[in-house]
Amino acid sequence: MYTLYYFPDACSLATQVVLNELDQPVEIIDVQKVDNFKAINPVGMVPVLRDNGNILREGAAVILYLLNKHQNTMLPATGVPREQAIQDIMFANATMHPTYSRLFFIAQNITDEKAKQSGFKATAQVITSLWQVVEQQLDKQNFLGGDQPSAADIMLTVYSRWGANFPVDISLGQNTQKMVNAVQSLPSFKRALTAEQAQSAA
Mind listing the pLDDT tens digit for each residue in 144-162? Predict the structure, then answer.
């Protein structure tokens, strides 16, 4: 069984959803309940996945590890479709995720209210422009991976939830909102949310 260290509604949620899609049992541990999480991950970030004695860090690396290890439809085996799937995962992890992270940084580190609101507005505009890139890719298909949800769709859906925590206006196109709604309706996504909520209540 895998062990996943997570923070509620963080990017680790995507890893848990992928594990559910792969039908892999997982024990989830809230890092807020771990005495010295930096002993497990020196940078203190989630997700961290333990596979027997192997500890894996960094969201995209963890997801690619799982997709390469287990048979699935989320990562094509060869060719251009595989390269596109990897590119989509990297876009989600290395472009969209850090841009959303700016909102958390602004909220936690900028005290001047005028500067804070200006930072929120500028970041929201950049995020909206990134969602327009997603919207274009979804112009002729339901998901980034085609007819079925890919890991990147799952990752982006998790990130899309974060905007509600801030006083920002982030616009998702019609195709993108349809994709996000479809991913959030997946049994694997609902199961992951329920698992996190149960841990929080424990």
Answer: 989 999 999 999 999 999 9
